[in-house]
Amino acid sequence: MVLPFQPGGATDAWMRTVAPALGEALGRTIVAENRSGASAMIGADHVAKSPPDGTTLLFTILTYMQAPMVFRRFPYDPLGDFTPVGQVGAAAATFVVQASTGARNLAEFIAAARGHSFSYGSYGTGSGSHVFSQFLSDAEGLGMTHVAYRGENPLILDMLAGRVQCGLVSHTSTREHIQAGKLRVLAVLGPKRLLYLPETPTFLELGYPALFDWDGVVPLLAPTRTPAPVMATLADGLRRAMAQPEIVRRLSDLGLDAAWTPPAATQANLEAAQTRWAKVLQVTGITAE
Known about the structure:
The protein has 289 residues and is of the alpha/beta class. The protein is built from ten helices and eleven strands.
C-alpha cells in the first residue's frame, strides 16, 4: 500500500490504521510504503504503472488529482488510470498559525500579515493546502511567500521553528502543538465546523467565497485494468475492515470523518471532485511550473 507522502502526517497515520485491518480481512500481509515527491505524483505514478494484479494500491488524498491539474502536466490520468477499491472517509483542513504572530482569530492574522513578510507552507505545490492558502493571500492582498514541503511533518516542524507563519493542514498533525499553545487554529476549510473544534469557524462563516467549502475524499485505489474478481475481493476486504468499530474510532480520533464508501460511489465522488477542482483553478487562476 503506497502513500505518496512522507511519514509522520495525518494521511500516513490513516494509512497505517487501515492497512493492517485490510490485511487481516484479506488474510494477507500488507506492507505500507511511503513514496513522496512531486506533490504526490511520484507515488501515484508508481501505482498507476504497476502490474494491475491487486498487489499494489494507492492510499491518498486528492493531491494526487489536484497537482497534475495545477502543473498542467499529467504523468497519469487521475481518473482513467485508477480503479477505486473504496473510500475510507473525508478530510477537512484547518488554517493554523504560529502563536508568535499574536493572532487569535483570522482578522487579527490578516492585519498582522499585512505589516510583515509572512510565508505560508503547504504539503506540496498544487495541493489544496497550497491553492487555498494562495487564494487567501491573494484575496486579502497579503503577498505571502509559498514554501512547499513533501508532506505535513516537515511543514509543521518549520512552522514551530518560525520559518513559516501559517498553513492549511490537518488537525491531527497539529493538535498537540495547539494544546501546548505553540500553534493556533483560526479557521476550517470545509462546509461545516468540526466536532472536535466546535469554537473554530469555517472560512464560509467568515465571509469567504463558496469555493472554501472544500473537503477532501480519501480513497484507496488500484491500477486500472485490475481484474474484476480481484477488485471485488479488495472492495469486500475494505468494507469489512471499515465495519470494525475500533478502526472507525481510531480514524475519527485521528481527525478523519471515517466512513466506508463502495467503489462506484467513490468513483462518482472523485469525478465530482475533479470538476470542483477545475472550477477552483478557473476562479483563482493559480498554476505552477
